[in-house]
Design a protein that fits this description.
Length: 348
């Protein structure tokens, strides 16, 4: 058979259960299951042939450049532990069904684009597509597939049927390959402004990837944390207003009369001696001492009879009503507590 010979039909297994893209991109093993021998596949993939090999063992069943969708599925087929194209939702079903890509998911810039980041580049502009796999998998980067390894594979998000790394992990893998400080800052900022994740989750992944020693990453993280605090403060204002809580004094410092500084608070109700503190800091390599200082401040205030309600940005975003109920309960319970120590309230 020469390379101009018509492509044999994919048989005996029918292809009606496959999605459209999986009728255009298949592994060599899948082709064999459809009755196409290795020799026939090699013949079709010769220069000028009807097919082409995109990656080792992954065949594009048409000439010409692959589409963005075909490239994404190709790198997943290459990296997946089991290169199955999926099965129907139930026996005899004819609807296309999402494939199963075991132990492989898209990450880096491609994943961020799929998550909807406007600051991430278009898929077709990416020379390399990052795919995340377990550390011990025996794979190498080749062609458009760049292998990224991890000791702990996160649970993927399904985006248009594709397994995609969660935003914090995808960000860390993208930042690892970027040296442009402006691009890094835009990506991290969009993660928070777009509501994709909280700053703490991003910083945790950057720390795990040992990226916080890079000056342009540290600068971007500082901007990220400032952005996260501004968003969290706005959510706290809206929580108080929309859930009918009494107005507190905002952003204050507490001191004992003629005594030491007790610390800053985001909201304080002096008559009830109830305080709210937003925890917008993120774990970093050098912050153990800061966390200890935070815990000491909270314990000191509570010894003085001041109830401290600790709220994270994530809780404010995901369960605002519940957090408002916690604050309301603390305010109502003030009548049942002993009077708090007298403290001086100063603007922060």
């Amino acid at each position: 058979m020469n390379h101009n010979t018509p492509v044999p039909p994919l048989s005996p297994r029918p292809v009606r259960h496959l999605s459209e893209v999986h009728r255009r991109v298949m592994t060599a093993a899948q082709l064999r299951s459809h009755g196409v021998s290795s020799a026939e596949t090699n013949e079709q993939c010769r220069p000028g042939g009807a097919w082409q090999q995109l990656l080792p063992g992954v065949i594009l069943l048409h000439p010409g450049p692959p589409t963005a969708e075909e490239r994404l599925h190709a790198v997943l087929m290459y990296a997946a532990k089991e290169r199955a194209a999926g099965v129907p939702a139930q026996p005899g079903a004819e609807q296309p069904h999402a494939p199963t890509y075991a132990e492989a998911m898209l990450t880096g810039l491609a994943a961020l684009t799929l998550h909807g980041f406007t600051s991430a580049p278009p898929l077709m502009s990416l020379d390399k597509l990052d795919v995340l796999v377990p550390r011990l998998r025996r794979l190498r980067s080749t062609g458009c597939a760049r292998i990224v390894r991890t000791t702990s594979l996160p649970a993927p998000h399904l985006v248009t049927g594709l397994p995609v790394a969660p935003v914090p992990r995808a960000l860390a893998d993208a930042v690892a390959e970027l040296s442009d400080a402006g691009v890094v800052r835009r990506l991290l900022t969009e993660a928070v402004r777009g509501g994709h994740c909280e700053p703490a989750a991003v910083v945790r992944e950057l720390n795990n990837a040992k990226l916080l020693s890079r000056p342009h990453v540290v600068d971007a993280v500082d901007s990220l944390l400032a952005e996260g605090r501004a968003i969290a403060e706005d959510r706290l204002y809206r929580m108080v207003r929309e859930h009918g809580l009494p107005d507190p004094v905002w952003n204050v410092d507490l001191r004992l009369p003629d005594g030491p500084h007790l610390g800053g608070l985001d909201a304080y109700w002096p008559e009830q001696a109830v305080a709210v503190e937003l925890d917008t800091r993120a774990p970093r390599q050098d912050e153990d001492a800061l966390w200890s200082e935070y815990a000491r401040k909270r314990e000191h205030l509570e010894r003085l009879g001041i109830t401290v309600v600790h709220i994270t940005p994530k809780k404010l975003r995901e369960s605002t009503e519940q957090q408002a109920a916690v604050v309301r309960t603390a305010l109502m319970a003030s009548n049942d507590r002993d009077p708090a120590a007298y403290v001086v309230v100063l603007p922060r």
